[in-house]
Amino acid sequence: MIRKVLSAAAIAAALLSVSTAAAYAQCGGASWYGPGFHGKKAASGQTFNENAMTAAHRSLPFGTKLRVTDQRTGREVQVTINDRGPFVGKRIIDLSKAAATELGFRNRGVTSVCIEQI
To answer: In a 3-state reduction of DSSP, which class is residue 33?
Structure first.
């Protein structure tokens, strides 16, 4: 009887850790921003730095870490959410200038990405 209870508890704990570890994932358009916002306060209260690996998302909590993968090139970067946006069309994320440069789409302005919480 005790073994069954412990087994059930272990299973419940494992299921709970799997469900709480489930990462957020989304695919869609990405843009970048920086020059006009550099040095100003982001929605999180932090000073925006276009040279940092940060991003804006409409609803994810500030401090959320994401892996962003450019669907055209397969390049990946890791960013931290510290601002709100984008508020244009169907874009799902606005990346800092540094993140866009690292992904290689800064000259194009927009790209298609998948984001996942890490």
So the answer is: strand
